[in-house]
Amino acid sequence: MTEIQSITARRVWDSRGRPTVEADVKLANGVLGRAIAPAGASRGTREAIERRDGGTRLGGRDVQGALTSVRDRIAPALAGMEANDQAAVDAAILALDPSPLKDTLGGNATVAVSLAVLHAAAADAGKPLWRHVADEFGRTPSLPLPEIQIFGGGAHAGRRVDIQDFMVMVPGASSFDEVLEVTSEIYFAAGEIMAAKGRVAGVADEGGWWPVFDSNEEALETLVAAIEKAGEKPGERVVISLDIAASEFGGEGRYRLALEDREMDSAGQIEMLGRWLDAYPIASIEDPLAEDDPEGMAEFTRRFGDRVQIIGDDYLVTNAVLVREAAEQGACNAVLIKVNQAGTVSESIETFRAADGLGWGSVVSARSGETEDVSISHLATGLGGGQLKVGSFSRSERMVKWNECLRIQDELGEAAFVGGAPLARTWWGARRKAGV
Ligand code: PGA
Ligand code: ZN
């Protein structure tokens, strides 16, 4: 009996104290599935719309309209459907709102319900969510390689620096547990370096240290110093990953670094990033060019795609069609998977499959506005072979996702950690292969 009996929605609050949508899906046999919609701050223009009420209350951010979408439109349409037929459920949601950006129902309404249905089906099958995902979608589960933020920036830190995420990855670790231990050492080493300079001023939205720097590159230098202070040789067990989030400071062919009072064209942006790739052990870079700069993205990929992972986030918005288009244009070699950018589980998995079929990497990702919801830890594990980006190494809306992976590790075993495989085609992988 996996029949959906009822769906309810309530307003809950995210890590920034903003309202968001929680959905409860109850099956006829009493089994419950529950999920919460996350919220982005540096959003792509082509991602599913977060339906907000507007007006003056709660800064216009209330979600009563999205709750009404769930109660009055989605719940009646899904009642009586089989929860374990995710494709049919998501198709029914799409039929209610065929607009490409889901602006009628709201992507925050659709994603909460779609994920809650997935949870209900897993609970009904008596399986942890990661196992259900692996079984349903024919994947071999593995614990993902994390990208963990050390300094926040961009829209997550009052634009104190232009670049959004300064992260580390530990592809040389032998277990997920070891990744977290090494990252914790680097996180606190970075905090000590900032404190010694009199520069600790709390944390940014995703828990990374607040970026008090005189230039964007100073953040990179400090990150390298933190890796060394933690006893690691940068580029060996640990590498750097950046989310440039270039659409936040670039567009219409111009890129303006406010911190450095510097303006460049697309070629200048590519030159600057190329210098960083030469100077620092960066193995992965996200949205290096703005979402309206496909030529720049293709040129960047042509020049550096055989050295680094190039992830499209705002550029691809978890959309399978955009992934295939980008591949034809030679832009990017990996995709960020944010379920709320697509709006449903099925569309997210379609995007994952499109990327996988192209031999691309994929990174399941949180948003800057998060909650206690741990669905993405399970999705990244269940889909297998991937990476997981959750933000930093503080604040419980972040730690709950890392800690959930440790619980999964107990079930799956340490050997199920994917390790450095996602970076095999970067300079790091080449070095590893050569035994350097
Ligand atoms: P967002 O940013 O959740 O604020 O949109 C996350 C990202 O750019 O990866
Ligand atoms: Zn991003």
From TrEMBL:
GO terms for cellular component: cell surface; extracellular region; phosphopyruvate hydratase complex. It is an enzyme of class 4 (lyase). It is found in: Cytoplasm; Secreted; Cell surface. The keyword Cytoplasm applies. Mg(2+) is required for catalysis and for stabilizing the dimer. Mg(2+) binds at D243, E286, D313. One of its GO terms (biological process) is glycolytic process. It catalyses: (2R)-2-phosphoglycerate = phosphoenolpyruvate + H2O. The keyword GTP-binding does not apply. SUPFAM superfamilies: Enolase C-terminal domain-like, Enolase N-terminal domain-like. Keywords: Cytoplasm, Glycolysis, Lyase, Magnesium, Metal-binding, Pyruvate, Secreted. It comes from the Bacteria. Its EC number is 4.2.1.11. Signal peptide: none annotated. Residues 4-133 form the Enolase N-terminal domain. One of its GO terms (molecular function) is phosphopyruvate hydratase activity. Its cofactor is Mg(2+). The active site is at E206, K338. Pathway: Carbohydrate degradation; glycolysis; pyruvate from D-glyceraldehyde 3-phosphate: step 4/5. Residues 140-426 form the Enolase C-terminal TIM barrel domain. Catalyzes the reversible conversion of 2-phosphoglycerate (2-PG) into phosphoenolpyruvate (PEP). It is essential for the degradation of carbohydrates via glycolysis. Belongs to the enolase family. This is Enolase. It comes from Oricola thermophila. The gene is eno.
